[in-house]
Write a structure and sequence with these properties.
This protein has one domain: Ribosomal protein L20, C-terminal domain (c-terminal domain of poly(a) binding protein). The chain is about 75% helix and about 0% strand. It contains five helices and no strands.
Amino acid sequence: MPRSVNSVASRNRRKKILKAAKGYFGRRKNVYTVAKNAVEKAMTYAYRDRKNNKRNFRALWIQRINAGARAHGMSYSQFMGKVKANNIELNRKVLADLAMNNPEAFKAIVEKVK
């Protein structure tokens, strides 16, 4: 008896890869073996950069808080040290948003920690 091959599952697996490769250039979008490599690499980058994104945003928040604190005569490290000492439970994301979009509220926090 000949070997049974599950062509339905194979086709679906290939279609899934080719669908993920939609929009790629050249043979990467329509040749399965090339598309498979491109999609695997893209997924690796996506996984890695989800982690890098968190790093980048934290660095951005720190820069914004630093700029806001220096406008009121403090460095970032002094400001964050005093925020922690005064038990102000605001994270960097919120502090950066206040420094950018609500300077009077940020000034009130700076006055409180001084």
